[in-house]
Design goal:
There is one protein chain. This protein is an alpha/beta fold and 259 residues long. The chain folds into 2 domains: 85 residues, no CATH class; 157 residues, 3-Layer(aba) Sandwich (Rossmann fold), CATH 3.40.50.150. 47% of the residues lie in helices and 13% in strands. The protein has 11 helices and 8 strands. Strands 6-2-1-7-8 form a 5-stranded parallel sheet, covered by helices on one side. A 3-stranded antiparallel sheet has the order 3-5-4. β4 and β5 form a beta hairpin. α4 packs across α5.
């Protein structure tokens, strides 16, 4: 009988030791995240808060203050948060007119073309550019593409280059058969395309970005939508400095709203 009470008291004591959740202060997290990545979630506070609460509960983290402290001490956790909040769905052959315009210009250059995709996301865009260049008559030795993204997880997905039917819905069967092979319900990109794209996990605001080469053409679609006006201007200036020819335009997405 006394053993029963002791067991009950122990259970109550253990219950008391569990920290109470306090998920207030999302503004502080959003400010910190913007300071480190440039990405502004101020207009998505409720969405981000709900996502972070789910993330914290899985990690047994009981407040956003605790989360920020752990992120400062654990780079892998910080990268996991970045991956969790920034991964987006994309697909092949998106906004083709921009790529077609770039190809016309590239044909006039007469040397190996260097292209940057920032962000690269899961590889759909840089691989689309590579396929279209090959289809336009460029030899593999005539061009190279670098794709960068802030998400380590999405970079690994891009390197693997395995896609579902939905990602390829704009490709006709001839292009699918030529550049992919299919296993069950997945499409695996062939090496002739994969070897033309190099991926790097890097933020455009990192100092290491300056270690990249200069580029003939830069594509930066659906990145600026996460930035406020000041950060957009800063990002645009950084990308502009990476162009071989300053007078060349950067290809932004229609939703990026860059002045």
């Amino acid at each position: 009988m006394f053993g029963f009470f002791r067991k009950k008291e122990k259970q109550q004591e253990e219950k008391k030791q569990i920290p109470q959740e306090n998920f207030s202060g999302i503004e502080e997290f959003i400010f910190h995240f913007k300071d480190k990545t440039g990405i502004d979630f101020s207009n998505k506070k409720d969405i981000i808060k709900n996502k972070l609460i789910l993330f914290c509960r899985k990690k047994e983290i009981y407040s956003f203050t605790e989360l920020l402290q752990k992120m400062a001490q654990d780079f892998s956790l910080k990268q996991e948060i970045i991956d969790y909040l920034t991964v987006n769905e994309t697909y092949f052959f998106r906004e083709l007119p921009q790529i077609e315009e770039m190809i016309k210009k590239a044909k006039k250059l007469g040397y190996k073309v260097e292209i940057l995709c920032a962000p690269s996301s899961s590889g759909d865009e840089p691989y689309s550019i590579a396929i279209m260049l090959l289809e336009a008559g460029f030899l593999p030795k005539d061009f190279h593409i670098i794709g960068i993204d802030i998400s380590k997880g999405i970079i690994e997905k891009a390197k693997n280059a395995i896609y579902n039917e939905r990602s390829l819905y704009r490709l006709n069967q001839e292009i699918k058969d030529k550049y992919f092979y299919k296993r069950e319900n997945k499409y695996f990109l062939k090496e002739i395309v994969k070897e033309k794209v190099t991926f790097r996990c890097v933020n455009i605001f990192d100092e290491t970005l300056g270690n990249l080469r200069k580029f003939d053409f830069i594509f930066s679609r659906n990145m600026m939508i996460y930035f406020d006006k000041e950060t957009k201007i800063k990002a645009k200036n950084i990308l502009q400095k990476l162009l071989k020819r300053p007078q060349e335009s950067i290809y932004f997405g229609h939703a990026d709203m860059v002045g």
